[in-house]
Specification:
six-stranded antiparallel β-sheet; six-stranded mixed β-sheet; alpha+beta
């Protein structure tokens, strides 16, 4: 597989794109205004313990308390004796009390008004190794196909492992020397001892280990000898990557390139266009079929549609062809858009169980390319596949867009007639509290024309109904779902002064 990495540094953000065989496969946005917390380790204080929720809330010094599910507590010192004896129980009893200090690591970023999700199972990621404190475990990636290489790495890990400090070898460790792996392990042990020292010396809540920024962590995970091209438009980042390559003794030849052209890197490489398509709900397939990708509060829903596809075979065969193509694209879109949590995919109906099996296996094959943890269930008789994908950061749509102040994130605004109804209600409320019945109504020009020309009768009715003289004023600064009232005598905005309408617009 031909892999290329493009890194572009802008005024407010750094963008990292990964191409596989010429097609955009991954996109990461590191915003200066967004602080990454996943991977950070804190000395926190337990605020409250709620057995009914099977969770505790921990103060780690952020705006909202972190959420600690009991299932994320594996430290034997924190688990009740009854649970140690009955490990099959779904409910976990823990030895946590409000005010208790505890060391936790962030595994999910805080989102909206929800705090970060944390765990007591600490891990420290290095270049070739992930250190697992309080563990005997040694793990070698199953993605390594060479069984002899897996055995070699397992042997190295067994020889260098210290008591109570387990490890997981990363895929980039493949082919690395004994000394490279051992040095990485020693570096991680030093980091772990440092955070323990900070935890002992500092009062909670306190950040005791800061994980790498998005750019650094992505580069740590992606840059290897298998990468055929690394293009960087920032001199600073170019020097940093050059240093990383030398320290890791990577043989990448002339793969590293400093981009100096005036044309923006992402525009010149065609990544900009591909990136903008990720903001759309619709994703087209080569066959003419398409996907509709909807993100809700509870889950991500993907609908497969035949669209312009005209097959030459029967319904079952055509459905299978579209679904197989869709399975590949869905996996690619989940990676690109950083969609996570529960994902429901509504494939085109297939009658034969063997065809549903083929699509399921295709999904599993494509999901192996995903660096995030995934779990997938077989397609039901209704044609729906359920899967989960690990949340590692903000989705692309959250990284590249903000909530619309007009539609409040719905993607739609209220209709013109609904707005007129709101104006009518406002006038009724106003009349109850005021005797000055000469007002100015400010509207977007389109709405102003609509009211005066197409809704003339309603305009007159508004005045007669409420016994108010109303002068409509064009205001191009207004949004189409807004209105503003002032008294005829002055220009002071009184819209939000009316009781039930305070903060309405």
């Amino acid at each position: 597989m031909k892999k290329e990495i493009y890194i572009s540094k802008g005024v407010g953000e750094t963008r990292i794109a990964v191409k596989e065989n010429g097609k955009l496969a991954e996109l990461h946005v590191d915003k200066q205004s967004q602080v990454k917390t996943v991977g950070n380790i804190y000395k926190g204080v337990v605020e409250n313990v709620i057995p009914g929720m099977q969770a505790a809330f921990v103060n780690i010094g952020q705006d909202a308390n972190a959420f600690l599910p009991f299932s994320e507590i594996s430290d034997s010192e924190l688990i009740a004796e009854t649970n140690k004896k009955t490990q099959n129980s779904k409910e976990v009893g823990v030895l946590l009390q409000p005010g208790q200090e505890i060391i936790v690591q962030v595994i999910k970023e805080p989102f909206d008004k929800k705090g970060a999700r944390v765990t007591t199972d600490l891990s420290l990621a290095g270049r070739f190794i992930v250190l697992i404190p309080k563990s005997k475990y040694i793990g070698v990636p199953k993605k390594m196909r060479d069984k002899y290489e897996r055995r070699r790495l397992k042997k190295i890990a067994t020889e260098i492992k210290q008591p109570g400090l387990g490890m997981i070898l990363r895929t980039v460790a493949e082919g690395k020397t004994d000394s490279q792996i051992e040095n990485d392990y020693k570096t991680l042990i030093k980091k772990y001892n440092d955070l323990l020292y900070k935890a002992e010396k500092n009062k909670a809540p306190k950040l005791i280990h800061h994980d790498l920024k998005v750019t650094s962590s992505v580069l740590r995970d992606l840059i290897s000898e298998k990468v055929e091209k690394i293009v960087v438009d920032s001199k600073q980042d170019f020097k940093r990557i050059e240093k990383m390559v030398k320290e890791d003794a990577l043989d990448i030849g002339d793969a590293l390139e400093h981009y100096r052209k005036r044309e923006p890197l992402f525009k010149e490489s065609g990544i900009d266009n591909a990136m903008m398509k990720l903001l759309r709900k619709k994703a087209w397939l080569k066959s003419g079929a398409y996907l509709i990708i909807e993100r809700t509060e509870a889950m991500v829903v993907v609908d497969v549609n035949s669209g312009k596809f005209v097959g030459k075979k029967g319904h079952e065969e055509n459905s299978l062809k579209i679904n197989l193509e869709a399975a590949k694209e869905i996996c690619a879109q989940l990676r690109l858009r950083h969609l996570s949590g529960l994902v429901l995919i509504d494939f085109i109906d297939m009658v034969k169980p063997e065809n549903r099996k083929k699509v399921f296996l295709e999904m599993k094959k494509e999901l192996r390319k995903d660096r995030a943890k995934v779990a997938v269930a077989e397609i039901s008789e209704f044609g729906v596949l359920e899967m989960t994908r690990e949340r590692t950061g903000l989705s692309i749509i959250d990284s590249l867009t903000e909530c619309c102040e007009v539609c409040n994130g719905t993607g739609r605004i209220i209709s013109r007639d609904t707005l007129l109804t709101r104006i009518d209600y406002w006038l009724r409320d106003y009349k109850k509290q005021n005797k000055d019945l000469r007002l100015k109504l400010y509207l977007h020009p389109e709405l102003s024309d609509y009211l005066k020309k197409e809704k003339t009768r309603d305009y007159i009715r508004l005045m007669w109904k409420n016994f108010i003289y109303l002068k409509v004023v064009n205001d191009s600064t207004m949004y189409k779902n807004q209105f503003k009232f002032t008294k005829m005598s002055d220009s002071k905005d009184i819209t939000h002064e009316i009781g039930t309408w305070k903060g309405h617009n």
